[in-house]
Amino acid sequence: MQRLIVHALKEKDGFLLGIVIKVKANMPPKQTQKKLSKAKEKKLKRKQEQAEIALLLKKIKSANEVEDYMVHFAPFKTYSQNGLNAKISYGSPANTSPDDLQWMFQLLKDNMEEIYRSNDFRWKDREKFEELSHESSRYLIARDAISEKPLGFVSLRFDLDDDVDVVYCYEIQLSVDARRKGLGKFLMQLLELIGHKANMTKIVLTVFKDNLASNHFFREKLRYKEDDTSPLFFDPMNPDDYTYSIISKELLLGGGKVDKQIKKTAAPETVLTNTTNTTNTN
Ligand SMILES: CC(C)(COP(=O)(O)OP(=O)(O)OC[C@H]1O[C@@H](n2cnc3c(N)ncnc32)[C@H](O)[C@@H]1OP(=O)(O)O)[C@@H](O)C(=O)NCCC(=O)NCCS
After folding, report:
1. Confidence band, pLDDT 50/70/90 cuts, at residue 22
2. Whose C-alpha lies nearest to ligand 1, atom 4?
3. Is the pLDDT of residue 202 over 70?
4. Would you say domain 66-271 falls under CATH 3.40.50.2300?
5. DSSP string of 113-125?
6. Kind of enzyme, top EC level (predicted)?
7. Strand duo 244-250 + 78-81: pairing
8. Is 280 in the pocket of ligand 1 (CB under 6 A)?
9. Residue 110 to residue 103: CA distance in whole angstroms
10. CA 46 to ligand 1 center in whole angstroms
């Protein structure tokens, strides 16, 4: 678009001294200019967001490619407390035996099917097994160090959740006789370290409101807080429509706060340096 600007030079003694014609090329009116710069801004912002998401996805891919996080956390390979003598391993569906997958599924079913049903949530064996054994799943499995009997597991995924890079804790399930001996807390602390190592922003999980033990475990003991994505925030006027909450814990990138917290709660001199964990305080 071109604009002609005509300036008549001052008249002197009744004579016009001249006319200047300026041609301004590509100069839209001010309003259009504003609109254009806003559109440009939006486009730039969209591009930046896409670039950020691409970076996060790359980070998640790298986290998934780590075959065994336990090499970084040797002191967490064993847990010997309160009558338990457990060893912990990290794996994916690809390197987990069908027997272990079946055992995990059965424990999950034994612990949770009833709670799902009482909360009007659908439970279907096949769907649950598929979710558990999904290729993105990763596991922490605790088993008796001598008999190899499985005691409990965590199922996790590195994922993008509401555009945030997270470790999603899909399950933490312990067999009845392994509970209340500190193993659950120990596994969640290990998960924090793994999430921190993988540079994820937070750990997220879903908990049924009426699972009182679990709420006490996560909220009071491990200091998880209501997550931004929880129904409490996205639908605050109808809290009773939801039987579950989404809770999370920040991993605070680069700040070393995870380590500090674990040091505080889990006897640093043993947990972080000693492979026997004999004085882990859970
Ligand atoms: C919830 C669960 C993972 C906790 O693991 P755990 O090894 O039993 O818990 P810990 O021994 O580490 O307990 C740590 C603290 O959590 C709290 N806690 C654990 N179990 C509790 C319970 N049944 N009631 C109240 N508080 C409990 C306590 O404060 C406890 O500290 P304390 O023993 O010094 O009082 C385990 O009980 C479990 O697998 N439950 C069944 C499956 C389940 O509900 N999973 C969670 C789904 S979201």
Report:
1. low
2. 184
3. yes
4. no
5. HHHHHHTT----H
6. transferase
7. unpaired
8. no
9. 10
10. 44
